[in-house]
Each structure stands twice: as structure tokens, then as C-alpha cells.
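Budget justification aside, the reviewers requested a transparent look at the raw inputs and outputs of the sequence design task funded under Objective 1. We therefore reproduce one unedited record. The lines immediately below are the C-alpha cells for a 107-residue chain.
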């Protein structure tokens, strides 16, 4: 894959988190089905929270005038148990290129 394509379309947890760390931005889906960049304020890599798998905890915002929001990120080929989490979750199927799906919050 060309270097530019890898930068914009990482596949898998490690490459995606590395790209987010370098850019301090992450693409996320919107209610309208578009993609918007969230500006990352803080990015914490995790393994689980309260026994539930959670790969990252993100604090970010869409624009400077929007409030900072906190949400979890799960990389998995299978959707997580959405209702078990007490925070909004962005699920990313780590076996293919995608920006994920939301449960609990959509910018």
C-alpha cells in the first residue's frame, strides 16, 4: 500500500492508534453518514475498563467552540456488548478499513 494511503487508511489497532497519536485527529462517522475529524485532546491506550474490553479512551472535540467529549474505542471483528458500557463507544472492525460505528454518541 502506498505510504499516503497507509497514513490516511490504517488497518488494525496498532497502526490506527499510531496514526491518531501522530495526527492528534481521528475520523469518525456522523449521524448524516459523513465523516468528520475529531481533534484529540487526550488519548489513553487501555486494555479494559471494569472488565470490559476497551482499547482506547479518547477526549476530543469536533471544533474549538464545541465541548470536549469522552468516549471509548473498541477494535474488534465483532461488535461489543454496547449496553454494558457506561460511556459512548466507537466500534472499529479492525480487520478492514473503516471509521467505525457509534453507540451512545454521534458528533
Amino acid at each position: 500500500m502506498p505510504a499516503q494511503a497507509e497514513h490516511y487508511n490504517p488497518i488494525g489497532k496498532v497502526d490506527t492508534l499510531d496514526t491518531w497519536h501522530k495526527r492528534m485527529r481521528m475520523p469518525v462517522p456522523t449521524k448524516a453518514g459523513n465523516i468528520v475529524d475529531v481533534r484529540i485532546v487526550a488519548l489513553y491506550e487501555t486494555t479494559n475498563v471494569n472488565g470490559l474490553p476497551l482499547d482506547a479512551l479518547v477526549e476530543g472535540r469536533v471544533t474549538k467552540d464545541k465541548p470536549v467529549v469522552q468516549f471509548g474505542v473498541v477494535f474488534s471483528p465483532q461488535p461489543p456488548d454496547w449496553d454494558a458500557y457506561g460511556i459512548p463507544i466507537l466500534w472499529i472492525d479492525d480487520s478492514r478499513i473503516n471509521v467505525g460505528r457509534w453507540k451512545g454518541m454521534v458528533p
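The chain has two helices and eight strands. The first strand starts at residue 25 and ends at 29. Computational costs for records of this kind are itemized in the attached budget.
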